[in-house]
Amino acid sequence: MSSQTIQPSTVEGLKRLAKSLKTKRGLQYTKALDAAAQASGFHNFRHARNVLRSSPNVERSPLGQCIFLTAYWKDRNGGVGRETLTIWLSDPWNDLITPTQLQNHITLASFRTEGPDHLVREHLQSSKSAARRSVCAAARVMYFMDATKLRPSKSRSRPFPGGRSSNAVPGQDHYSIWYDRHTKRYLFADEPYEKAVEDRAQEREIWAYEHGFAIVKTEWAGMYAPDIGSRLYLISDKTNGIPLDPIAAALDNLPSPIVESAWDGESAPMQPFFVSPGTIAKAAAEKDKPKSPRKQDGQRNSLGYVQAFVGPQRRPKGRMPIEAHAQVGRLLKSVLKDTYHRKGVYNRVNAIRSELDDWAQLEYNHDELPNEQFFDLYYHESGSTFSRALPEADRERHVQSLAHATELLKEHHPDCPPLRSLLKKVDAAVKSLRDWN
Q1: Which DSSP symbol is given to 230?
Q2: CA-CA distance, 419 to 428, in Å (whole number)?
Q3: How far apart are CA 336 and CA 354, in angstroms?
Q4: What distances in angstroms separate CA 63 from CA 51, 87, 148, one per listed residue?
Q5: Per-residue pLDDT reduced to its tens digit, 118-165
Q6: Quick count: other Cβ atoms within 10 Å of Cβ 56?
Q7: Tens digit of pLDDT for each residue in 358-368?
Q8: Handedness of CA 428, 430, 432, 435 (dihedral sign)
Q9: Is 97 in the same domain as 184?
Q10: Where is the DUF5623 domain (predicted)?
């Protein structure tokens, strides 16, 4: 019997087919699992497992919405890479949560929207393992939202008795607050380590009874750290909160939470940066749309680069002459040495010189710009006054210095988003200087 005629309807059936394909085709077992799933009408083995475990009799077809979760990493030994996990949801992710609401959950707050089907962690992780852990954690939260249709709340006390966080359930840990956008009701997701609350079970039951709350422990292990012992308890006001039984039932239909030890995502070099299918399709659709004349945003006048511990950045194309760098550096240092106690000026100008220092390092190699010259371009100022106030004449002199620096930057760089962003910091520093009295 050919593999094309075999269409398993259970996870175990897929595994048996995968073992057969592994032998016949000489595939790695993980590749054979994906091949078996695809032969049965699924996108990959993870998708098949999710669908079959939650609804064993469901029609075999790739259902749902795909989302890619990515984290980039750089370790102490200079190793770099990308970890991307593909998950399937019943709804598009931005129907479950808005980009702004990502900030309402500690795990999702570090991710940004990179495309209609792609979320990327903003900062570099310190290792491949850390990148995988962060992506798996985000996936668990996504599955929670997809199953419950709840959204994370920015409130920190609303679901507690009396609206006071001091009334929280005894032993609570690693908690998050969720609300139903239709009923405007809330629940509290408590995720302590199971062993830490075993001895407090009676105390927690008494608390629930006294306050009229319900506590339900789900079979699904939860979002925080299910691989090392945390467990999920749903807590809600019996009268005004979200009913817990339907939520627990929805979660208990989920497959086991995704954890690092069961990683089956993609591990790849950091560059080229991953572009998701949805991002490509969106770009193609926008390309086909009739375009009205518009002002160029200058994006083509910039180049991408990766900054350690920050991640992907952009800088202007071309090179500003070294002497121009030195001139701008002198102007910025003259401002910095007099404005240490005016943080609205100092912090912005310090950030500007740090960014220009990065640009100079990328524009010139060591032979063209030796270290002793490079380090003096934007740093090594002397004569700091640490003044808490400046005469108006000195403030105006520094305003003119920043205006001159702006002229030099515009003269030697093409118009582009990274330059405009830098100049906005200059404008903000000027405003702070003029408001200083």
Answers
A1: B
A2: 14
A3: 12
A4: 8, 11, 18
A5: 999 999 999 999 999 999 999 999 999 999 999 999 887 888 898 888
A6: 10
A7: 999 999 998 99
A8: negative
A9: no
A10: 313-431
DSSP annotation of 259: -
Query: Token digits for 152?
Result: 């994370």
215 and 183 within one domain: yes
Does 316 reside within a domain? yes
35 occurs within a structural domain: yes
Facing residues of 68 across strands? Answer: 86, 118
Angle at Cα 103 formed by Cα 100 and Cα 106, nearest 5°? 160
The average pLDDT across 310-328 equals 91
Task: Grade residue 60 by pLDDT with cuts at 50, 70 and 90.
Answer: very low
User: Residue type at 272?
Assistant: P
Boundary of a domain, candidates 201, 235, 268: 268
Structure tokens at 397: 């002199």
Name the pairing type of β-strands 65-74 and 118-121.
parallel
Alpha helices in 70-126 (DSSP H): 93-96
127 residue type, one letter: S
Instruction: Tell me how long the chain is.
Output: 437
CATH of residue 359's domain is 1.20.1260.40
pLDDT confidence bin for 59, thresholds 50/70/90: very low
The CA distance from 410 to 423, in Å, is 9
Least confident stretch, 24-38, 71-85, 96-110, 154-168 = 24-38
* Structural domain range at position 339: 312-435
Buried b (16+ CB within 10 A) or exposed e, 177-194: bbbbeeeebbbbbbbbbe
- Asked whether residue 274 is domain-assigned, the answer is no
Q: Is 380 left (phi over 0), alpha (psi -120 to 50) or beta?
A: left
Distance separating the N- and C-terminal Cα atoms of the chain: 87
